[in-house]
Amino acid sequence: MANLVRITEPASLSLHAAALLAKQGGERITNQEIAAVLQVSEHHLAKVMQQLVRAGIVKSTRGPSGGFQLARTADEITLLDLFEAVEGPLGEAECLLGERVCDGGDCMVGELVNTVHRQVRAYLAETNLARLAQRFRLVSIERLAADR
């Protein structure tokens, strides 16, 4: 069951980076600072952040005092917004084999897959960034404060 729900690295980065921005209360944070806190590649994070900028979730400012900040309030941004900004629309539940090998009428695990898919979609759509950021606590957040 642990592998039934998979969230890609870019989707995970979008959720974590946005939660970090929400916790900073409107302060700009550089890509380097976010990457250091999340302990990820700056290059890979920059690609994800640009996708969030294109989706209108994050604003980017260039220059010495530049960085990223949320473009909307954290309570206006859902986890589904963040997920779909980097992954595209969350589709329908699919056959676990990739291609259908049966008529789907009485699938062995179809009911389970559909139930989990609906629950995941509902959770992402109903959970806003403010709620996530409220519970979000990074082990390495002290690095950001120390570096500033």
Descriptive account of the structure:
The structure is a single chain. Helix 1 packs across helix 3. It contains seven helices and two strands; from the N terminus they run αααββαααα. The longest helix is centred in the last third of the chain and has 17 residues. It has a two-stranded antiparallel ribbon. By secondary structure, the chain is mostly helical. Helices cover 51% and strands 5% of the residues. The chain has a domain of 102 residues: Winged helix-like DNA-binding domain superfamily/Winged helix DNA-binding domain (Arc Repressor Mutant, subunit A).
Would you summarize the structure shown here?
With 148 residues, the protein is mainly α. Helix content is 51%, strand content 5%. The chain contains 7 helices and 2 strands; from the N terminus they run αααββαααα.
Index terms:
Arc Repressor Mutant, subunit A, 148 residues, two-stranded antiparallel sheet, single chain, mainly alpha
Helical content (DSSP H or I, runs of 4+): 40-55%
State the fourth-level CATH superfamily of the domain at 9-90 and 128-147. Answer: Winged helix-like DNA-binding domain superfamily/Winged helix DNA-binding domain
Q: Strand share of the residues?
A: 5-15%
Label the overall shape.
elongated
- What is the CATH class designation of the domain at 9-90 and 128-147? Mainly Alpha
Low-confidence stretches: none
- For this structure, the CATH topology of the domain at 9-90 and 128-147 is Arc Repressor Mutant, subunit A
Q: Return Rg in Å.
A: 18 Å
Q: How far from one another are the termini?
A: 42 Å
Q: What is the mean pLDDT? A: 85
* Classification by helices and strands: mainly alpha
Strand count, sense and closure of the main sheet?
2 strands, antiparallel
Tell me the number of helical segments per DSSP (H or I, 4 or more residues long). 7
